[in-house]
Structure formats: structure tokens, C-alpha cells
Design a protein that fits this description.
Elements lengths: L1 E2 L5 E2 L7 E9 L20 E8 L4 E9 L8 E10 L5 E11 L4 H8 L12 E6 L4 E6 L9 H4 L12 E10 L16 H4 L14 E5 L5 H7 L13 H4 L26 E11 L4 E12 L10 E4 L10 E3 L22 H4 L13 H13 L36 E4 L6 E5 L14 E9 L7 E7 L6 E2 L2 E6 L7 E10 L11 E4 L12 E3 L3 E2 L17 E4 L4 E8 L4 E8 L4 E4 L12 E9 L4 E9 L1
Parallel strand pairs: 25-31
Antiparallel strand pairs: 1-2, 3-4, 4-5, 5-6, 6-13, 7-12, 8-9, 8-14, 9-10, 10-13, 11-12, 14-15, 16-17, 17-21, 18-19, 18-22, 20-21, 22-23, 24-26, 26-29, 27-28, 27-30, 30-31
């Protein structure tokens, strides 16, 4: 995306890129009907999207994204890029760069500031950092934005967590093309005399990355163009003896490579420019790159505070700009951390991890290591002290994609109403026969329920293989006795293997509990009546604000509800066409306005001509 100088989106299609094609490929282990997928490939991602577009430079780009749903690998997306020169001549001094805007998170900013705007990213809440060992540029919030109202409620076991911006989000360079890098003398690149002694490698190619830039994230074209100017490099390089302090234990690997603009990592933290080059690409040839978008529950875990990243301090601090990795396990303080004089939080000393965080893959550093593992096909390595080298991570730029373990997938579930208004959850046993060379056997299911997709999730029951309590006629059938008419809830069934490994929660299914419609229209009720400020409900409703919801009860399968003001003005018409005794309304008029306080009348008429009338009261 590209913006104008004020951060507003501007046109990209047919200006900077020319769309050619896009294809989405599903490689899920289970089909939508619950059967196992006979064509499932365990050495490929579960979802693959291949997009192609052209550029004004005559370079055709093919981007292949890959995503997985199962634990340990569901917090990153890997992108492979192929850039082909379709011109009849060689491209010289070509640069390849990624421009990202990171700001964690939209929900946290809206809860704190009641808005989501580019200017808020400069509020001193955000820090941009660079992990030298992992080639990772990323952002995190100062203290995670603890909620001021629902902190205790959301911090309960099984819930979403009391921090509204716990995420650390960033980009890892997994692979860059080395073969097509221009050799010294083949480029018009300006290299200052002071840099010349350190920026060229053993093959007289420029050490990478070329660009490692932080900016505010209104990414307008003239700003982006300056990032790629070979005569005016926007990133300085590690070269001085002060710089060398950082690298005395790793043979000075980063000397001569682009230094992050860490002096902007607090005042302008959200825009990240990450670039490689200059390249010399002959006609018809292709170069390849791979990156991973990664998100973790904070920058690190408690033990990571012994490691240092570039960033985490105020603008104007002196070298070396290196600070301990914070986490939500322990608040840290150090010089130049700013106000408040802490970074990180003690949150996890007193509260559990949210349900959606895998305890084996917590931080963005953990997620980055898993992305590297998946891309390279090598055993898991913790790159806390070991340098990752994207230059030769795989032989040809194509990922290996061979996960060390593939869990039993979650079954496809179906939820139905019953005559007794008790929800019925059903699924077949097909996943119990799932096998791959890296999968252990099925053990049991966990059936879960929540009033909101972010939790808290409560266990309905643990269900063994072909459990006689629930398995009938080749189908598992579970009745949820906690369901009530009008409630909106979410269900999921998790598969657990013989080693305790769990599937992803890929089958979260929303459902509104309903009883069948009446056969003959009689008395129709509005609940609650009166509604005083709120109906007192908790949880969520994807169709509207749950606390504003009124329910009409006593309906036939096909009927029309008309709502009138005290003066007789038509407020809203609702068509009810489902086998349900009730129909919700969220106090929104036909003019899309919230209902005012007052007395309202309604008329219900079914297809036979039968009518029912009544009134209700709203008090705001």
C-alpha cells in the first residue's frame, strides 16, 4: 500500500503494479464435509496463495504465501518472491525492499485513545527494534496497554488476557539472492571513502542488508523513492570501534552491513524499510527472496532479558543503542527508556498466558525461530547467540517445508438446535485415522464452549475414542445443557494425540440457541420489557451490539414484524424467515439510527394473515 503525505491510501493498481493473476490453493488435511483429504501433502502449507503482477520497470513478480493452522507454526506467514526481468536488456542498480507499517495493536490503541491513526504511532507507546541474530525488524508496545476496565475479568484462566497490545510484530529475512548482487565496479552506487573499507565482502559484493530504516508510517511515494537512491544511502553502516563493541564475540559479522536507524526507533517507530541490493539482473533471469511475517506474545520471555537487541531507547541516547529484550514476565528499567521509566511488564508473574498462546512458542523470537525451522527444513535452533545467515539458508531460494511433527487435525463439527432448545454438537470419527510419517496416534477429543471467540473457553467434556456416552451410528453427538434460547455462543472440538499434542482450533463454530418456530401465531413477547439502559447480557453477538438486543418470542416460521412509535410512525420492518421461535433486534431504526427512549408498539403478521400485537418500553 502507498499513501499520500497525510497517510491516506492512494491508488497502486495500474500505477505501481499491474495485476496478472491470483490463485488460492487449499491443502487442508480435512475436507469441508469432515472426510480426510486424500491429496493432503504434509510437506506443503495448508493454505497457499500465488499472486503475480507486473511493474513499470519490466519486472514480473510472483509472490507465494504459505500458512499453517497447527500449534507452534500458526503465528507466521512465509512469503517467497520471484522477480523476473522481462525486458530485453539487463537491469542495473536494482534494489528490492519491503516497506511495512507495524503498530501493536489496533485494539489496544482504540481502547486507549478511541481511535486508530498513524499519528498515534508516535505517542511514545511503540518501540522499533532489530534482532541482529535473526535478521528480524519488529515493533512492540512499551507496557502492553493493560485494560483499565476489564483487566481482572480478561486475565482469568482461559480468557483473552488483560493486556490489549501484547503483540510484537515484525519481519524476518529468510533468504536473499546473492548470485545477482552487483560486483564492485558494476554499479553506480556511491560508497563514501570511510565506508569503502568495510562494506565489500570477500567476493567484492556489497554486504547485506542495504537498507534498514525506521520512519513514521505514512509511506508516500517520494519517501519510498529516497530509500532506494544509490547515490544517497539512507542507512549508515556498522564500521566504528564503538560499533564493534556489539560484535566482539561473533567475528564482527555485522561490520559493513546496514545499521538500523535506531535513533528513530522511539520517535518514528512504525514504518520499517528493509532493502537489499544493488542487483544486476540480465534479461530473462529471475532472482528469489523469502521473508516471514511473525507475531509473538511480546518481544521475549523472562530468560531473554540477558540478550540485547538494537532499540528500546529514546532518540538522542549515545551509542551503543543496545538494550535488554523485554517481556511480559518482568518489567525492566534502564537508562534512556523514557517515561514511564519501565519497559515490559510483570503481568505473567501473576496471570496465566491467554488460551491462544502456545506455551512452547510465546515470544516473537520463538516464532521467528519456528519460521526459520519451517523454511529451511532443519532442526529447531534458538538463534539467541547463533547467527542466522539468509544468504545461503536454502540451496535455491525455495523453502523445504518439512515440519517435525504434524498433529491430528481437528474434526469438522456441526451444531444444530433441538426441540428442547439444547444445542447439539456433532462430528464424525474420520480424523482418528489420520496418518503421516510425522504424526502419532489419536487419543481423545476436548469439546469446548465460549461466549466470545476470544474466550474464556470452558471444557464441556473430554471424549475418548468411540466413547459410548457420545458415539452413536458412526457419529459423535454432544448435547450442551448450558445453552439457553437467544444465547450466542461458540463451539470447538480439539483433537489430542497420544503424546498430548493438540490440533489447532480450526473448527470454531458460532451458533445462536433457538427453539423451533410455533405452528400457530399466538401471544408474542418482547424480552426484556422494559429494557433499562442495557439488557444485562454478556458475551458477543456478530449481528449487533449484544447489550442492545431485544428478542421477539412466539414467532411462526414465516412472519413480518412491524415496529411503530407512540405517534404511529413506522420505525422498522423485520422479515422473519427461519424455523426459530425468536428473532433479535438491536434497536436500529430503518433510518439506521439508535432507538430513543419511549413506548413502542409492534404488529406481527404471518403468511396465513394471523396477527399479534403488543408494546414494549425502552429507557436510555
Amino acid at each position: 500500500a502507498v499513501t499520500d503525505n497525510n497517510g491516506n491510501a492512494t491508488q497502486v493498481e495500474n500505477v505501481y503494479s499491474y495485476p496478472i493473476s491470483i490463485e488460492r490453493i487449499e491443502n487442508y488435511p480435512v475436507l469441508s464435509n469432515g472426510d480426510l483429504n486424500p491429496d493432503y501433502n504434509p510437506d506443503e502449507a495448508e493454505e497457499i496463495i500465488i499472486a503475480k503482477w507486473g511493474t513499470p520497470l519490466g519486472v514480473e513478480v510472483t509472490r507465494t504465501s504459505r500458512a499453517w493452522s497447527f500449534p507452534k507454526h500458526n503465528s507466521y506467514i512465509i512469503y517467497e518472491y520471484e522477480l523476473k526481468n522481462t525486458n530485453s536488456s539487463t537491469l542495473e542498480d536494482a534494489f528490492v525492499a519491503w516497506g511495512y507499517g507495524f503498530c501493536t495493536s489496533m485494539f489496544g490503541y482504540e481502547r486507549k485513545y478511541n481511535r486508530w491513526a498513524e499519528a498515534d504511532t508516535r505517542s511514545s507507546d511503540q518501540f522499533a527494534r532489530y534482532d541482529l541474530k535473526r535478521y528480524m525488524t519488529y515493533n512492540h508496545d512499551r507496557i502492553g496497554k493493560p485494560d483499565t476496565i476489564f483487566f481482572d475479568l480478561w486475565s482469568r484462566p482461559g480468557d483473552r488476557g488483560g493486556l490489549n497490545s501484547p503483540q510484537a510484530a515484525g519481519l524476518v529475512m529468510l533468504y536473499y539472492d546473492y548470485d545477482h548482487l552487483a560486483v564492485r565496479g558494476e554499479t553506480n552506487l556511491y560508497v563514501s571513502p570511510s565506508d569503502s573499507g568495510v562494506v565489500w565482502d570477500e567476493n567484492n559484493k556489497l554486504k547485506q542488508p542495504w537498507l534498514n530504516r525506521y520512519e513514521n508510517c505514512n509511506l508516500y511515494p517520494t519517501k519510498l523513492q529516497t530509500w532506494l537512491d544509490p547515490l544517497n544511502r539512507k542507512s549508515s553502516v556498522f564500521k566504528s570501534r564503538t560499533d564493534s563493541i556489539y560484535f566482539s564475540d561473533d567475528n564482527y559479522y555485522w561490520i559493513g552491513r546496514a545499521k538500523p536507524s535506531q535513533t528513530l526507533g522511539w520517535s518514528q517507530p512504525a514504518g520499517h524499510g528493509y532493502g537489499f541490493g544493488p542487483y544486476k539482473l540480465p534479461a530473462g533471469e529471475t532472482m528469489r527472496f523469502a521473508v516471514a511475517e511473525v507475531v509473538g506474545y511480546g518481544p521475549g520471555v523472562a530468560s531473554d532479558s540477558i540478550y540485547m537487541d538494537l532499540g528500546g531507547g529514546l532518540r538522542g541516547e549515545p551509542e551503543p543503542y543496545l538494550h535488554p529484550v523485554p517481556s511480559w514476565y518482568k518489567a525492566l528499567t534502564y537508562p534512556y527508556v523514557g517515561t514511564p521509566p519501565v519497559i515490559g511488564s510483570d503481568y505473567l508473574q501473576n496471570h496465566p498466558l491467554p488460551w491462544y498462546v502456545d506455551p512452547e512458542v510465546v515470544s516473537i523470537r520463538d516464532v521467528a525461530d519456528r519460521a526459520i525451522q519451517m523454511f529451511t527444513g532443519k532442526p529447531l535452533v534458538k538463534h539467541d547467540t547463533l547467527q542466522y545467515e539468509p544468504r545461503n539458508s536454502v540451496p535455491d531460494g525455495h523453502g523445504i517445508y518439512s515440519p517435525e511433527n504434524i498433529p491430528i487435525p481437528a474434526p469438522v463439527i456441526f451444531v444444530e438446535n433441538t426441540q428442547a432448545a439444547v444445542n447439539k454438537i456433532m462430528w464424525g470419527p474420520q480424523v482418528e485415522e489420520f496418518t503421516t510419517p510425522r504424526t502419532v496416534g489419536f487419543n481423545y477429543y476436548l469439546a469446548l464452549r465460549a461466549t466470545h471467540p476470544l474466550g474464556p473457553w470452558t471444557l464441556i467434556d473430554s471424549i475418548g475414542k468411540r466413547d459410548p456416552r457420545y458415539f452413536f451410528d458412526s457419529l459423535y453427538v454432544l448435547l450442551d445443557s448450558a445453552s439457553n434460547i437467544g444465547d450466542f455462543c461458540y463451539y470447538a472440538v480439539v483433537s489430542v494425540d497420544s503424546l498430548g499434542g493438540k490440533s489447532g482450533m480450526t473448527n470454531i463454530t458460532p451458533h445462536e440457541t433457538q427453539a423451533p418456530a410455533v405452528t400457530k401465531l399466538g401471544k408474542v413477547y418482547v424480552v426484556p420489557n422494559p429494557l433499562v439502559v442495557t439488557n444485562g447480557l454478556t458475551g458477543s453477538d456478530p449481528n449487533g451490539e449484544v447489550t442492545d438486543r431485544l428478542q421477539f418470542y412466539g414467532l411462526t416460521e414465516n412472519c413480518t414484524i412491524k415496529i411503530f412509535s407512540y405517534s404511529g410512525q413506522l420505525i422498522q420492518t423485520i422479515e422473519h424467515n427461519q424455523d426459530a421461535v425468536n428473532n433479535p433486534w438491536y434497536q436500529i431504526s430503518r433510518n439506521n439510527q439508535i432507538l430513543a427512549s419511549g413506548v413502542y408498539f409492534f404488529v406481527v403478521e404471518d403468511k396465513s394473515g394471523a396477527k399479534a400485537t403488543g408494546k414494549f418500553v425502552i429507557i436510555h
